[in-house]
Amino acid sequence: MTSTKRVVVTGATGLIGAKLCAQLIAKGYSVVVFSRDLQKARHTVPGAAEYVAWSPAETGDWAKAIDGAYGVVNLAGASLFGKRWSAEYKREIIASREVGTRGLVNAMAAAQQKPELLVNMSAVGFYGPHGAELLDESAPAGNDFLANVCKVWEREAARAEQLGVRTVIFRSGVVLSAAEHAGLPINLSKMSLDRPGLVLDTEAGAFPLLLLPFYFFTGGPVLPGTQYLSWIHVDDTVGLLIKALEDPQARGPLNATAPDPQTNKAIAATIGNVMGRPSWLPVPGFAMHLLLGEMADMITTGQRVLPKKAQELGYQFKYAQSEQAIRQLLRK
Ligand SMILES: NC(=O)c1ccc[n+]([C@@H]2O[C@H](COP(=O)([O-])OP(=O)(O)OC[C@H]3O[C@@H](n4cnc5c(N)ncnc54)[C@H](OP(=O)(O)O)[C@@H]3O)[C@@H](O)[C@H]2O)c1
Asked: Which domains does the chain have, with CATH numbers?
């Protein structure tokens, strides 16, 4: 396909954004990167049509780049991994998404030619912690911190739909992606006494968190082990984002998860099997809390989410099974 459609991407320099932009550019889209750091953006996302200075705000000079764009993909937000969730950092996690999204929709409202669509990131954390029941897009919101982050984010994005902009709320599962380098997924250079706990290689998202115990030959389920992990391979995240951009039927909440959510215990067994390392040593949830603080909730709780809408839209997952995805990521 060739196209000169202009697509604005925030958070383009991140784990998902960089891969999405590379594919959009290869498909012939004219990608406009919104970033807080233009030097990093030019380096991380080569070949974009434009690099625009942007940070979460109600309005700014960047707003004119929204006018006449075909679409906006809004991925930006303070990282959930790699830094302890202090009260101050929790405020940043929320505000970066709330104010950032609000500003983008304000720009759409003011545009002479509004974009046709907004694809706005959210997460399966929207549903809050659950047991083994299957959840599709009709399930109600939860009430913990991550659910509240998602509710605020989705509320701001929904204002675009009221402007007549087709809006897809992309409820992503945990994105599994390989680190660019092999080895221990801890960033030793960033460990310090004033930042207690491990500092993980955040460029690879959540996967290092899952792999960590296996590097010490102490792999096993994080207790209780019955909590579900709704995961997705990063190639499918990008594939589904492009589906959301290109399929006019895509609208409203869209669960971006593989059709094979697994319990933490089952995932641990698969990782151990693929890495050829023990996977029987249970990790107490409180140990994860000691290491990671409240962030550990993302591992010690979970939800079993199905990609009902993605499948109705006919999306074919490249990595539908967890073992297939883990083998590919670990090059095994
Ligand atoms: N990875 C996952 O497993 C997962 C799962 C569900 C949802 N999500 C969400 O999907 C989005 C993209 O995920 P990702 O893994 O690609 O994230 P990421 O690697 O952390 O990248 C997010 C990008 O957001 C921008 N950003 C960082 N801090 C910011 C702040 N305080 N204010 C405004 N912008 C900020 C940065 O871009 P610039 O520095 O260029 O501005 C960064 O490259 C995130 O919002 C994430 O929460 C991710």
From this structure: 6-172+233-257 (3.40.50.720)
